[in-house]
Amino acid sequence: MISSSPAPETGPLTCPSCAWPAPTVVSAHGSARYLRCVCGRWLIEHAGVLVAVAGGSAFDTVAGRR
Ligand SMILES: [Zn+2]
To answer: What are 7-24's pLDDT values in tens digits?
Structure first.
């Protein structure tokens, strides 16, 4: 009997601001990773979980001008 357990997805996060599926990993220290999204926002990931978002999003700026 073969048990198939999907490997945990530890790929790039999805940006919470613009839903960009592949922010660029800029730096990594141990289990922490720092990624920069195309919208200009920084994402801080720890152990595969998004723990913080920093910086402004260009898309947020546009939305805020309404
Ligand atoms: Zn983004």
So the answer is: 455 565 899 999 999 999
CA 57/CA 66 separation, integer angstroms:
15
Look at 59 and 35; give whichever has higher pLDDT. Answer: 35
**2, two tokens:** 């073969």
Q: 11: CA distance to ligand 1 center in Å? A: 16
Cα separation, 56 vs 1, whole angstroms: 51
Domain boundary assignment for the chain: 24-64
2 CA distance to ligand 1 centroid (A)? 40
Residue entry with tokens 């922010």: 23
Q: How far is the CA of 24 from the centre of ligand 1 (A)?
A: 10
Tell me how far the alpha carbon of residue 63 lies from the centroid of ligand 1, in angstroms: 13
